[in-house]
Sequence to fold (265 residues):
Amino acid sequence: MPRHDCYPDFEQHELTFGGETRTVFKAGTGPAVLVMHEAPGLYPGVADFGRKVVAAGLTAYLPSLIGTPGRPMTVPYALGTVARACVAREFAVFSTRRNSPITEWLRALGRHAHAECGGPGVGAVGMCLTGGFALALMADDTLLAPVLSQPSLPFALTAAHKRDLGIDDATLARVKERAAEGVCVLGLRFTHDRLVPAERFARLREELGAAFEAIEIDSSPGNPHGLPRRAHSVLVYDLVDRPGHPTQVALERVLAFFRARLLAA
Fold:
């Protein structure tokens, strides 16, 4: 695997699970949090989010799942990686009631991270293409703090797609068991994000009840914070680093969620 010098403050590891090797960047101390990047890949903004996880007293694991680590975000680059994801077997972008195959590798990474870092368990945050992956990872007892930021799979083509959670029935049953045991799920979306329909969050409320905490940020026309209707990336690209801004409040809530679930215990 090639070496990447883009993030010198992170260790680079090549980890193999199930015969598949991927690059993982790691930094920090304390219990582990898996940071699963959005499209187009592990670009600098995602690494910045990982640094915030480290500053919160945790160890950030940033696996490279698609794209080129360190390559800056551009619209053509993002569209290109989404197109590649559409034909890649690892991502279930159109299928309903199905886990994305790559989540098996990510579950193994979570178990590996827990063994390395200790603590009561691990956290995980998915974004965009990976937004719902933390739900699939809940099948493992090691995951204690799942965050779904703008979960976009499967793509919202039909009414069934809009309500789908990107996991199969057996995984959903296990997720509901763990929610009943006290594991809470945090979800984030912009209200007018067409990639993350309101129906998907409504389904999460139906299935998980009080175990699902939704943060839905107003992006309607004329919203008081000037957010564009195309706003999508709550924690990275569309984050506004200003005290009191709803995206900043959402970021602080995510970090507090990780601390409460992984450090307070």
User: Anything to note?
Assistant: The longest helix spans residues 246-262. Residues 11-262 form a domain with the Rossmann fold fold (CATH 3.40.50.1820). The radius of gyration is 17 Å. The mean pLDDT is 96.
